[in-house]
Amino acid sequence: MSAITSTTDANAALAATAAPASGTDAQDRFLKLLVTQLQNQDPLNPMDNAQITSQMAQISTVSGIDKLNATLQSMATSFGANQSLQAAGMIGRQVLAPGSTLQLQNGAAAGGVELPQAADSVVVSILDGSGQLVHKVDLGAQPAGVLGFQWDGVVDSGASAAAGKYTFTVQAVQGGNKVDATALELGLVGGVTQGKTGTLLNLNGLGTVALSDVRQVL
User: Fold this and answer.
1) Based on the domain organization, do 101 and 65 belong to the same domain?
2) What is the DSSP letter of 131?
3) Which domain holds residue 24?
4) Sign of the C-alpha dihedral, residues 169, 172, 178, 180?
5) Which of 81, 150, 167, 178 is buried most deeply by CB count within 10 Å?
6) How many alpha carbons lie under 13 Å from residue 188 in its C-beta half-sphere?
7) pLDDT at 134 (0 to 100)
8) Coil, helix or strand for 56?
9) Which pLDDT score, from 0 to 100, does residue 5 have?
10) What is the mean pLDDT, run by run of 10 residues, along the chain of 218 residues?
11) What pLDDT does residue 194 have?
């Protein structure tokens, strides 16, 4: 009777330890409990080989997951470091990223548009600080992809606009149907930040954008 009781206790302890534990300590505890279980098993009712195999597979799976997690963490750290190095090389360069701000300086401003498909007509509407339309730039028909545009600062009345920040919207049409175009703002990369969500580029006067959001480097 004592052998049967010991076996039952060992089974319970093994089941409780093998599943939640992880790492080298879990493997050591598992092996000690398994040896104890085998030593105290009922000779008239020995453990099933399938049961032993199942328990060993459980602890092997936990150990394998731990090693996989450690490998993935190491890869993620290395990838983040490589991204930072690549992004540092972009300091001083201009990039196009999602945004609708235009910086008018010295009578010139530039932005971009991303088209998921070709369009028969692409029109950029430039707005002042109060949201009033001051000028439209007709880009005509354009293929899918990223394209840039220039504004010389002249408004529809023929006057020159004051330097500063403006915004713009994009209207694109293909065969009478609207195309979901993305406005892209042009910014100068002034620095790089490694954040929790990845590598961020600090654009002078425009804030930060994720490195993954950059559509074009000029």
Assistant:
1) no
2) S
3) 2-80
4) negative
5) 167
6) 6
7) 96
8) helix
9) 43
10) 43 46 62 71 63 69 69 59 72 95 95 97 96 96 97 94 96 96 96 82 90 91
11) 80
pLDDT of residue 190: 93
Contacts of 145 (CB under 8 A, 6+ apart): 114, 115
> What is residue 88's predicted lDDT score, i.e. its pLDDT?
83
Query: In terms of residues, how long is the chain?
Result: 218
In whole angstroms, give the CA distance from residue 26 to residue 65.
13
127 with 174, same domain? yes
Position 87 in a domain = no
For residue 109, give the nearest of 160, 157, 159 by alpha carbon.
160
Residue 88 in domain:
no
186/141 same-domain check: yes
pLDDT at 16: 47
CATH code where residue 134 lies: 2.60.40.4070
Q: Do residues 114 and 184 touch, judged by C-beta distance below 8 A?
A: yes
**Predicted local distance difference test score (pLDDT) of residue 40:** 73
Angle between helices 23-39 and 49-88 (to 10 degrees): 180
The count of domains in the chain is 2
Token look-up 């654009």 returns 203
pTM equals 0.64
CA distance 190 to 94: 9
Residue where a domain stops, chosen among 31, 48, 80: 80
